[in-house]
């Protein structure tokens, strides 16, 4: 068994977490939450919970996670629950992903068991410069409009009243 330094182990865990979250986001999982569970269980360090809208989507999400984990260079994860599709567990060793339909997620409420230490999802992928500039322009467009002086507001109200009366 290979022993990793603490820094290498953290990087390894972050890379695995990012691969799992990417796999979930690629197939449009809803309400993805990541929890640090190292203090609760010696079996795994993170639990990821995500919602799927159908059995077909839970299976597709599990397959996507499995593929992303393999592409990232990790061992093939074990998958349980694909037959039923209401709750699929993808065991990636140090991280376990639970993909559940809404009713199952509400009933079992895994967040109450594992959720006392939420973890931020992996950082978004870097954007090309042109896209970043477009995002900045979009943010400017969403900025609140500058306040108009009271005289302009009053004039605008009078004009609107005249148009409504005409």
TrEMBL record:
It is found in: Cytoplasm. Its main location: cytoplasm. Residues 119-166 are annotated as: Disordered. One of its GO terms (biological process) is negative regulation of translation. One of its GO terms (molecular function) is ribosomal large subunit binding. Residues 125-153 have a biased composition (Low complexity). The keyword Ribosomal protein does not apply. The keyword ATP-binding does not apply. Residues 154-166 have a biased composition (Basic residues). One of its GO terms (cellular component) is cytoplasm. Keywords: Cytoplasm, Repressor, Translation regulation. InterPro entries: Iojap/RsfS/C7orf30 (IPR004394), NT_sf (IPR043519). Belongs to the Iojap/RsfS family. PANTHER family: IOJAP SUPERFAMILY ORTHOLOG, MITOCHONDRIAL ASSEMBLY OF RIBOSOMAL LARGE SUBUNIT PROTEIN 1. Interacts with ribosomal protein uL14 (rplN). HAMAP family: Iojap_RsfS. Functions as a ribosomal silencing factor. Interacts with ribosomal protein uL14 (rplN), blocking formation of intersubunit bridge B8. Prevents association of the 30S and 50S ribosomal subunits and the formation of functional ribosomes, thus repressing translation. This is Ribosomal silencing factor RsfS. It comes from Vandammella animalimorsus.
């Amino acid at each position: 068994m290979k022993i990793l330094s603490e820094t290498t182990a953290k990087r390894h865990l972050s890379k695995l977490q990012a691969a799992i979250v990417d796999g979930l986001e690629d197939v449009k999982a809803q309400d993805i939450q990541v929890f640090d569970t190292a203090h609760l269980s010696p079996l795994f360090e993170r639990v990821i919970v995500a919602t799927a809208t159908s059995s077909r989507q839970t299976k597709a999400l599990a397959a996507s996670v499995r593929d992303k984990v393999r592409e990232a260079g990790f061992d093939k994860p074990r998958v349980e629950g694909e037959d039923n599709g209401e709750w699929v567990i993808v065991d990636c060793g140090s991280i376990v992903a639970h993909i559940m339909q809404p009713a199952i997620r509400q009933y079992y409420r895994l967040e109450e068991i594992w959720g006392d230490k939420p973890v931020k999802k992996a950082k978004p992928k870097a954007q090309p410069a042109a896209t970043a500039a477009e995002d900045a322009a979009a943010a400017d467009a969403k900025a609140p409009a500058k306040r108009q002086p009271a005289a302009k507001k009053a004039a605008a109200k009078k004009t609107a009243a005249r148009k409504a009366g005409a």
